[in-house]
Amino acid sequence: MKPALPPPSFALQPAPLETLVIPSGLDGSRGLNRGVTGRAQIAATTDLDAIRAWLSRFTNTKTTFENYRKEAERLLLWSVVIVGKPLSSLTHEDCLRYQQFLADPQPAATWVAGGGRKHARSDARWRPFYGPLSPASQRQAIVILNALFSWLVQAGYLAGNPLSLSRRRAKHAAPRITRYLEPGVWQEVKDFIAAMPRDTDRATAHAVRVRWLFTLLYLGGMRIAEVGANTMGQFFVRRDADGKTRWWLTVHGKGGKERLVPATQELMSELSRYRQHLGLSALPSPIEDTPLVLPIGVTAASGGTQTCAPLTRAALHAIVKEVFAGAAARLRERDEVSAGRADLLEKASAHWLRHSAGSHMADRQVDLRMVRDTLGHASLTTTSLYLHIDDDRRHQETEEKHRIDW
Known about the structure:
The structure is a single chain. With about 400 residues, this protein is mainly α. The chain has two domains: about 25-155, no CATH class; about 185-400, Intergrase catalytic core (hpI Integrase, Chain A, Orthogonal Bundle), CATH 1.10.443.10. The chain is about 45% helix and about 5% strand. The chain is built from 14 helices and three strands. A three-stranded antiparallel sheet has the order 1-2-3. A hairpin with a 5-residue loop joins strand 1 (about 235-240) and strand 2 (about 245-250). Helix 2 crosses helix 5 (about 135-155) and helix 10 (about 315-335) packs antiparallel against helix 11.
């Protein structure tokens, strides 16, 4: 007869994985769902070590690592604190109970950070949750945990995946993108930017920078992280088959993938406008490591552009959210009919501009394959003559049909 597991009433509290200490009866070394002895392909002997082995595969991708750690951490803590079982003893029925827990983590004082605030993992106020998970977040959590269990089975650590018995939903067509700004709302944002105050040098610098940032996000379809991670030296010029000079921007994007973004005449004009305001030459040099967007106060005269640190992702997000909030406030002041559009703008984030760029290009009948390549939804190959011709046509269509029109 196997020894009884400790009851869930022992004094173990949720803690981050890196500081978590689990009693031997709950550490998974004798989990009921452990794989066959001697067949494991990882050295882990406890559930915590097994999770760390799985997470080690994602350490080079910060966002993925943090998301995966969060979901594995939550399940492990729930398993040992609430259920009183090792993760490697969880059954299918336990997983169903966990899905219900995600919708309302209780007791809230134990599981939910006060006020929904995010605290550092070393902070005593840290909690695994910031509030109940939405249905979409619940589904995402289960997808990640299913990947964890499947990998542990493949590695020989677990005998089976308790989530694999879940009812498989029929595949539906992907929903239409809804997080974007329809042209009328987008025009309101541009009007707000055009009317930003310029009564001081700092206000002028801020308005010029905002216009350039929104140009990059919209005309380039760039992610906010890409704006911070790439430089002006990645703009380059080449001649097409007809001898026409075209500018491009090499973007190092998500997952380490590289893509070419057409730098249209309009985009290059805005770049020159921004650079000249900073006291830089109108066009960048290939060796230039100037960030795409600079902190206010850094100019050529200050001698800081070549070594200046780029704005953080959070700082760029804050600028975008501030503009959306300002445009929404202007809409509310206008009339009650505009309140719905203001509500939409207040929910918007920088990524909505990327979705807006793709949607507007598609609406203007830019070839969808070219939209795909510009947004980086597929890897690019630029070596063959055929793809070079295709690139040139993509540049031409983007030039003609995808404009910001300040």
